Input
Amino acid sequence: MTTVAPSVAPSGPKMDRLPPFAVVLHNDDRNEMAFVVQSVSQIVRMPVQDAYERMIEAHNQGQAVVLQTHREHAEFVCEALQSKGLVATVERSRG
Output
């Protein structure tokens, strides 16, 4: 009787931990603060108070991270914010 060893697939990158990406909201002079808060709250699906805090951070410091997630979702959210006229980018998260 011959014993057959199970085949082992080559080890690739682990898919359970995708590298995190940040959606960054940038300050702009075009949009009203209330509109930014409403848009961020709806698109990122965060409480209005949290969206307000991110908007104030962007206003005072020039930018604020509104979401950290995998790349495809970060790009989707970024494009949704941009479609509302907000200035947003996707950056690889540090740490």
User: Anything to note?
Assistant: The longest strand covers residues 63-69. The CA atoms of residues 4 and 10 lie 18 Å apart. Strands lie at 21-26, 63-69, 87-92.
